[in-house]
Design goal:
alpha+beta; Nuclear Transport Factor 2, Chain: A; four-stranded antiparallel sheet; 14 helices; 8 strands; 11% strand; elongated
Length: 456
C-alpha cells in the first residue's frame, strides 16, 4: 500500500505558491482585525482634515478682530482675561496677536470646581462661567481683542472642534485607555499594506493594471490591488506618522529615536535668569517684543517665569510651518536667549516628523487636504472592496479563511522574518495580537489534521 500522507508531504507545491498562500492568509487576518477601526479612522480623518474651514465658520468672531488703531499693551489684555475667570485660576500661557486681525489667546487652568459652558455673545459681553463639579482642572481659552481688550469669547480648550475631532480620530472620544484600538488597527494596516503589495505583484504576461472588460469579482480584485498599491507610499507616511504619537508604538519609536541620538534638542532644566540690579523683570509685552525680535515670523506661545529666577519659555504656536519652528528660553530681565533651537538645529528625525505630522493633519493648505481626501476615500474603497471580494469568494456555510498550502510557514524568506521582528519590537500591540493569532492558527491546524484523519 502506498503511504499517501508521505507522498503528499514529499511533493509540495512550488515555493511561490506556498508563499502566496501564506501572505494571502496573513492579509486576510490583518484585514479582519484592522478593517472596523481603520474604516472609522479613515472617515474621522476625512472630517479632521477640514478643521481650518470648519473652525473658520465656528470661531471667526473669536479668532479674528477688526483692526482699529493701535494695539493695547499685552499686559492690559491679560488683565482683562483674568477678570473673566475665577479668582483661583492659574495663567498658563499667552499667544499674542501676529497679524493685525488676530485676537489674543490667553490660556488658563481653571480650578477643579469650575467649568465654563458658554462663550460670550457676539457683542463681546462676558457671561460668568457656570459652576459644576469636576474631578480634574480643565484648560480654558480666553479670546481678547488686542485693540480694546474686550473679551470676545471663552470656552474650554478641549471643546474646540480641532481638539474634539482629533480625539474622535485618535481614541473615539474615549480616554487614553482606548487609544490602543486605533493603534492596533494602524499596526495591522501596516501588515495588510505590505502583504497586499506582495500579492499584487504582477505575474508573467500581466501588467498589474486594471484591465478593460473585467467583471464581477475580477473587477473588484483588480481595482482593490491597484488602488492599494497606488496609495502605498502615502499609506506608509500616514501610518508611520500616526504611530509616532500613539501610546505603545510611540514609546518604542521615541526610545529608538533617543538611542541613536535623534532626540529633539531640549533646553537644560537648570536654566535660570540673572537678576540685573535696577532692572525690573520683563512685562508680558516686553517679553513678547524680545521673543519677536529673535524668532521667525510666526505665531508664538509664551509662558511666564514661576519666580524671580525663572525664565520665559517661548515656542511656535503654529505647527503648520515646520521651517519656522522655534524653542527659546529667555532671561526674565534682559530678554536674552539662554537657549535657542530653530529648524536648522533639529535632528533628521525631528525634521521628518516636523514635516510628516502636519502633512498627516492636512495643515499644509488646500493641496494637502485634497490629497488626504483622495487618500481617505481610497482607503475606504480598499477596505469595502476587500470585504466585497471576500463575500463573493466565500462558499456558503464556510468561514472563508484562505487556504494555507502545506509547507507555507517554512517558505517565509529570512528578510520577512527580520522585518517581522523589527515591526514586533516597534509595535508591541502587533506583537501581542500576532501571538494570539498564532495560537488560533495552531488550533486550526491541529483541528484540521484531526478532521482529515477521521475523514480518511
Amino acid at each position: 500500500m502506498i503511504d499517501t500522507n508521505h507522498h503528499r508531504d514529499r511533493v509540495l507545491p512550488s515555493l511561490a505558491a506556498r508563499r502566496r498562500s501564506l501572505f494571502w492568509r496573513i492579509h486576510f487576518w490583518s484585514a479582519l482585525i484592522a478593517s472596523p477601526f481603520a474604516l472609522i479612522a479613515a472617515l474621522t480623518g476625512i472630517l479632521y482634515i477640514f478643521t481650518p474651514q470648519i473652525e473658520q465658520v465656528l470661531y471667526a468672531k473669536l479668532d479674528h478682530v477688526q483692526a482699529s488703531g493701535q494695539m493695547r499693551p499685552l499686559d492690559a489684555a491679560i488683565d482683562a482675561a483674568r477678570l473673566a475667570t475665577p479668582t483661583d485660576s492659574s495663567l498658563r500661557s499667552v499667544v499674542p496677536a501676529l497679524a493685525s486681525t488676530d485676537s489674543i489667546k490667553v490660556f488658563f487652568m481653571l480650578p477643579a470646581l469650575h467649568a465654563t459652558h458658554a462663550p460670550t455673545d457676539a457683542h463681546g459681553a462676558h457671561h460668568a462661567p457656570a459652576t459644576k463639579a469636576a474631578s480634574n482642572p480643565r484648560s480654558a481659552v480666553i479670546y481678547v481683542d488686542p485693540y480694546t481688550t474686550a473679551i470676545l469669547g471663552m470656552h474650554m480648550d478641549n471643546d474646540r472642534f480641532s481638539t474634539w475631532s482629533k480625539k474622535l480620530h485618535s481614541n473615539l472620544l474615549q480616554g487614553d485607555g482606548w487609544r490602543w484600538m486605533i493603534e492596533l488597527a494602524a499596526s495591522w494596516l501596516m501588515v495588510m499594506l505590505l502583504t497586499g503589495i506582495y500579492l499584487w505583484r504582477p505575474r508573467k504576461n500581466e501588467s498589474g493594471l486594471p484591465q478593460r472588460g473585467a467583471k464581477d469579482r475580477k473587477w473588484w480584485t483588480q481595482w482593490h490591488g491597484f488602488i492599494g498599491v497606488v496609495l502605498s507610499i502615502m499609506s506608509l507616511v500616514i501610518l508611520t506618522t500616526g504611530l509616532t504619537w500613539s501610546k505603545y508604538a510611540g514609546d518604542q519609536v521615541r526610545w529608538a529615536r533617543d538611542s541613536v541620538g535623534q532626540a529633539t534638542p531640549q533646553a537644560p532644566r537648570n536654566l535660570t535668569s540673572t537678576v540685573i540690579d535696577g532692572i525690573a523683570p520683563m512685562t508680558w509685552q516686553a517679553a513678547a517684543d524680545a521673543a519677536r525680535r529673535q524668532a521667525p515670523e510666526i505665531a508664538l506661545q509664551l509662558a511666564a517665569p514661576r519666580d524671580h529666577l525663572g525664565t520665559w519659555r517661548v515656542n511656535n504656536y503654529d505647527r503648520s510651518q515646520p521651517q519656522k519652528r522655534v524653542d527659546m528660553v529667555l532671561n526674565a530681565y534682559s530678554g536674552k536667549a539662554l537657549f535657542y533651537s530653530g529648524w536648522n538645529d533639529q535632528t533628521a528625525f525631528s525634521k521628518a516628523t516636523g514635516i510628516g505630522i502636519p502633512f498627516h493633519r492636512g495643515e499644509f493648505g488646500c493641496w494637502n487636504q485634497l490629497l488626504l481626501l483622495i487618500f481617505g476615500l481610497g482607503i475606504v474603497f480598499s477596505l469595502l472592496s476587500g470585504w466585497i471580494m471576500f463575500f463573493k469568494r466565500r462558499k456558503a456555510g464556510s468561514f472563508g479563511l484562505p487556504k494555507l498550502l502545506p509547507g507555507a510557514w517554512k517558505s517565509i524568506p529570512t528578510g520577512a522574518w527580520i522585518s517581522a521582528a523589527v515591526m514586533f519590537m516597534l509595535m508591541p500591540l502587533l506583537a501581542w495580537s500576532a501571538a494570539v493569532l498564532a495560537i488560533i492558527e495552531m488550533i486550526l491546524h491541529f483541528a484540521t489534521r484531526k478532521i482529515s484523519k477521521l475523514t480518511f
